[in-house]
Design brief:
Blueprint (H helix, E strand, L loop, with lengths): L8 H5 L5 H20 L2 H27 L6 H17 L4 H20 L8 H20 L1 H4 L9 H4 L5 H15 L6
Helix pairs in contact: 4-5, 4-6, 4-9
Length: 186
């Protein structure tokens, strides 16, 4: 076991604590850069989900781990970003434009939710973020003109079993609408 005693502030805030971490993170970056050439389509989709959930986990770690606050609304911000990205992509907006727009919309909603919740702490912050989560889930499930709502999940018998979770609806609604239900409004 290796014990590292820090003697100054620079050691405490350094990104890499020792040379071994530099090696392993470098190896990870090299593997991720080589993945599109070595892994198939399914493997790349799984790596995309790993990266997305890692970003969500880092955001939750910042809030819960460093501030001690409890937030139950991270899934709502993920859903807003995912729906925005999927809807913009379905309308032909280029990826390098739609991704920042989706991130900015999620950030704007976070800022709007953060203004009234600024003075909340503990269980009250958890209740406010849970309420936001429920509101976003209901909007995505019922706003037929924008998201296709529940009708997007009733496209065919083979696809209906995959609609049991909100996360599945968020990530696949636009694909199902274009493939299985061309009569639904775009």
């Amino acid at each position: 076991m290796r014990f590292l005693f820090k003697t100054n502030y620079e050691q405490d805030v350094r990104l890499f604590k020792h040379g071994g971490q530099v090696f392993w993170y470098g190896l990870l970056v090299a593997a991720l850069l080589a993945a599109p050439f070595a892994v198939g389509e399914y493997g790349m989709s799984q790596l995309h989900f790993i990266c997305i959930y890692s970003i969500v986990g880092l955001g939750l770690m910042l809030l819960v781990g460093f501030t001690g606050q409890i937030s139950l609304g991270h899934a709502a911000f993920l859903a807003v970003g995912a729906y925005t990205e999927a809807l913009l992509q379905a309308r032909g907006v280029p990826f390098f434009v739609s991704l920042p727009v989706a991130a900015l919309l999620s950030a704007a909603l976070g800022w709007l939710l953060g203004l009234p919740a600024l003075r909340l702490k503990g269980i009250y912050l958890a209740i406010a973020t849970l309420a936001f989560n429920v509101i976003v889930e209901e909007v995505t499930a019922r706003w037929e003109g924008l998201t296709g709502a529940i009708r997007a999940c009733i496209s065919s018998r083979s696809n209906s079993s995959a609609c049991n979770s909100t996360a599945t609806r968020v990530s696949t609604t636009c694909a199902w609408r274009s493939r299985c239900c061309p009569s639904l409004p775009s």
